[in-house]
UniProtKB/TrEMBL annotation:
Belongs to the helicase family. PriA subfamily. It comes from Paraburkholderia bannensis. Residues 194-218 are annotated as: Disordered. One of its GO terms (cellular component) is primosome complex. Keywords: ATP-binding, DNA replication, DNA-binding, Helicase, Hydrolase, Isomerase, Metal-binding, Nucleotide-binding, Primosome, Zinc. This is Replication restart protein PriA. The keyword DNA-binding applies. The keyword Transmembrane does not apply. Initiates the restart of stalled replication forks, which reloads the replicative helicase on sites other than the origin of replication. Recognizes and binds to abandoned replication forks and remodels them to uncover a helicase loading site. Promotes assembly of the primosome at these replication forks. HAMAP family: PriA (MF_00983). Residues 225-398 form the Helicase ATP-binding domain. SUPFAM superfamilies: P-loop containing nucleoside triphosphate hydrolases.
């Protein structure tokens, strides 16, 4: 046998691949296979990138692969290339990108043997969630561990259960009889495809609702996508409610008709939007695709479920994968179309670890595979808009709302200064006209939505007598008053304290909340609009798993008259009975020093306005502002994305800002601000000494706006260039130097940063 070596990527920050001898007879090594290898004193899971007949590592230093995952097909060359690109572009190690992109089950060798084996599992039912913790006697320790494992993961595989408790099967069966858990068995081996038929379906084609008659613009869009050949990036610019989803559905249906085995990836910005999309896709493809050919991928799935869905995509069994940004790294061997809905959404940018843009990676995958990619939005990112302006993306426009009777809402600006000058009544920040409009909706049985991008009761608690303000002991930030939770909470580090009864500095008992968050508005609405059923949706009210879904269902079911919420309620939801949208406190974002703040605010306002009047009820938007003459509000009132985008682009061009330059951000975290700044100064010096220095410019290092979080001081250094290639080359050359610098706790480098 010729000696055989493999080069393996491990989840480790250094870029190099590690050489190992491959001693196994079978299976033959192949790039894309997972292996278990010794690494230092421990075992690690790695991914083979290369196979070779020689190694430059001295024989006595070479160690051997211990085990290989033979049960699931190796990752494809294309997938490895995707990882390679992402690692290179975002300046990370191959393994640091590859391994975290895989579900936990694949990174756990003890589970390899059964990855695709038939599975029997039990899932907790709501009754069980309540009853189980109480039902077991304290001394039944093993049984309690079993119950806990089940409650933690929501479901438990029979093999895992038996490992916890030899008689697990009997207990689980008795819990099933009690109505606490349900049993399910899945056979992965039984490959299914649309062609093989006989698959289980929730509905049949006959039951699904009749298809909409497409508008001319929709028809044109669908045809353009289906007629494209090779790499074809589309920017689907459709006003809110114009039926972009319908375009995706038709394009996918056309694709699957033409290529019955093809796979598609559909990305949405928020977990909370997946159920709405999933339902639409299931209904549409019932009778065309088997039930399990549509899967979701997002961080809200239980670990086992996520692994199953991922494997379904990897084996080709899943044909449509619907997910949040992490799904962009899914292995899809027959990927033939990609869709990124609400492509402008900042949530597509991962903010830790590998700081990738899922939208950008989706476009890269489309290019790699020479397939179409559809980026949809009512307010495209200026980057994508600019690509379309230059003809690099094909623009498809939906200029009207899809539902015949639905028109875009009218937008009214309520001048708060004027309201005050004229002595008009307001209540807790809710202006007279807004309150009157909500009352009118209540009478007509329509819904109102109040958008306020600030959760909690009040952002500040302060003492009038001495000027004390409740701050976080660990961060340079005020703490937010949370009334229902009776707590002061830091939104940056999670620090919590009870609300003090008096000022800790001077003893004054008249300490008062300043400013308003969603909780305070929720409270105010109860008296401002008597009789209205008010519901708040924000990160606090939806903390429990699944609760967001329940709350949104209440809205859809008409059990709510006024919905108040943060940007969670602004995005994508197809509310049928909302005819009024009220916007509070948007002014805060007008004076940010982040050059993207206006783009973001405009998109947010257009999105939330787009929730009004979707199903034919005349919609109205009321924006409360002190700056009614601000250009953003004017563009909003005219629904003028194009005018807004073009004027922003002109400003960006004059100011040499993205998309006309390329940026990267080096962030450092130190025990002191001085340490962080010193690190960045050294880094900047090293940068200036590099051969490409003339093509790359570094700004001065500055502290972050919230300089201290969790007792760590943070600062950043912005680097930019008018050439992407020059920036990339410079960053690559800079990294080894950065790794050699000391004096800070952590640092990271972000390419194409969004928050500056
Ligand atoms: P968008 O994503 O562009 O905001 P949606 O795709 O949610 O819009 O569509 C808005 C509404 O219009 C949905 O209720 C959808 O069912 C409906 N719709 C879409 N296309 C049509 C059509 N051609 N005729 C009638 N209604 C349509
Ligand atoms: Zn005081
Ligand atoms: Zn804090």
């Amino acid at each position: 046998m010729t000696p055989c070596f493999v080069r393996v990527a491990l989840d480790h920050p250094l870029t190099a691949l590690y050489d190992y001898r491959y001693p196994l007879e079978a299976p033959p090594p192949q790039p894309g296979m997972l292996v278990r290898v010794p690494f230092g004193r421990r075992e690690a899971v790695g991914l083979i990138f290369e196979v070779s007949t020689h190694s430059d590592v001295p024989a006595n230093k070479l160690r051997e692969v211990d085990a290989v995952c033979a049960s699931c097909p190796p990752l494809s060359e294309q997938w490895l290339a995707l990882v390679g690109f992402a690692a290179d572009y975002y300046q990370r190690g191959l393994g640091e990108v590859a391994l975290p992109a895989l579900p936990q089950a694949l990174r756990d060798p003890s589970r390899w043997a059964r990855l695709l084996a038939p599975e029997e599992r039990y899932r907790v039912l709501p009754a069980g969630r309540e009853a189980l913790p109480e039902a077991l006697p304290a001394r039944a320790q093993v049984l309690r561990r079993l119950a806990q494992a089940l409650l933690d993961a929501n479901e438990l595989d029979l093999v895992d259960a038996r490992a916890l408790h030899p008689k697990a099967a009997a207990s689980l069966e008795s819990w099933r009889e009690a109505g606490w858990v349900e049993y399910e068995s899945v056979d992965f081996g039984a490959a299914q495809s649309a062609a093989s038929g006989g698959a289980k379906n929730t509905g049949s084609a006959a039951e699904s609702p009749p298809l909409h008659q497409l508008s001319d613009e929709q028809t044109e869009a669908v045809e353009a996508i289906l007629e494209s050949r090779g790499f074809a990036p589309f920017l689907l610019h459709g006003v809110t409610g114009s039926g972009k989803t319908e375009v995706y559905l038709r394009a996918l249906a056309g694709l699957l008709e033409r290529e019955p085995d093809a796979q598609a990836l559909v990305l949405v910005p928020e977990i909370n939007l997946t159920p709405q999309f999933e339902a639409a896709f299931r209904t549409r493809f019932a009778g065309v695709l088997p039930d399990d050919a549509i899967v979701t991928l997002h961080s809200g799935l239980a670990e086992g479920e996520r692994a199953r869905h991922w494997l379904a995509a990897h084996t080709g069994r899943a044909r449509i994968v619907l997910g949040t940004r992490l799904a962009v790294m899914a292995s899809l061997p027959r990927l033939a179309m990609l869709v990124v809905d609400e492509e402008h959404d900042p949530a597509y940018k991962q903010q830790e670890g590998l700081r990738y843009s899922a939208r950008d990676l989706a476009v890269w995958r489309a290019k790699q595979l020479e397939v179409p990619v559809v980026l949809g939005s009512a307010t495209p990112s200026l980057e994508s808009w600019w690509h379309a302006e230059q003809g690099r993306y094909t623009r498809l426009t939906l200029s009207r709302r899809a539902v015949a009777a639905a028109v875009l809402p009218s937008v009214k600006l309520i001048d708060l200064e004027e309201e005050r000058r004229r002595g008009r009544a307001s209540f807790e920040g809710l202006s007279g006209p807004l309150i009157a409009a909500m009352k009118a909706r209540l009478e007509r049985g329509e819904q109102s939505l109040i958008f306020l991008n600030r959760r909690g009761y009040a952002p500040v608690l302060s003492c009038d007598a001495c000027g004390w303000v409740a701050g976080c002991p660990r961060c340079s930030a005020y703490v937010v008053l949370h009334k229902p939770e009776r707590a002061l909470r830091c939104h940056h580090c999670g620090w919590e304290a009870r609300i003090p009864h008096s000022c800790p500095d001077c003893g004054n008992v008249d300490i008062a909340p300043m400013g308003r968050g969603t909780q305070r508005i929720e409270e105010a609405l109860a008296s401002a609009v008597p009789g209205a059923r008010v519901l708040r949706i924000d990160a606090d009210s939806t903390r429990r798993k699944g609760s967001a879904q329940a709350l949104f269902s209440d809205v859809h079911a008409g059990e709510v008259d006024i919905l108040v919420g943060t940007q969670m309620v602004a995005k994508g939801h197809d509310f049928q009975r909302v005819s009024l949208v009220g916007v509070m406190n948007a002014d805060n974002a007008l004076f940010s020093h982040d050059f993207r703040a206006s783009e973001r605010l405009f998109a947010q306002l257009m999105q939330v306005s787009g929730r009004a009047g979707r199903a034919g009820l005349p919609g109205e938007v009321m924006v409360q502002t002190r700056y009614p003459r601000h250009a953003i509000y004017h563009a909003l009132a005219r629904h003028d994305y194009v005018g807004f985008a073009n004027s922003q682009l002109a400003e960006r061009r004059d100011a040499h800002l993205p998309p006309f330059v390329y940026q990267a951000l080096l962030r450092a975290e130190g025990r002191t601000l001085e340490a962080a700044l010193a690190f960045l100064a050294e880094a900047a010096q090293a940068l200036a000494a590099m051969p490409t220095a003339s093509r790359v410019m570094a700004y001065d290092a500055v502290p972050l706006t919230i300089v201290k979080v969790m007792n760590v001081h943070r600062a950043q250094l912005l680097v930019e260039s008018s050439s992407r290639a020059a920036l990339q080359a410079t960053l690559r050359a800079w990294l080894p130097t950065l790794r050699g610098l000391r004096g800070v706790l952590r640092w990271n480098l972000e390419v194409d940063p969004l928050d500056i």
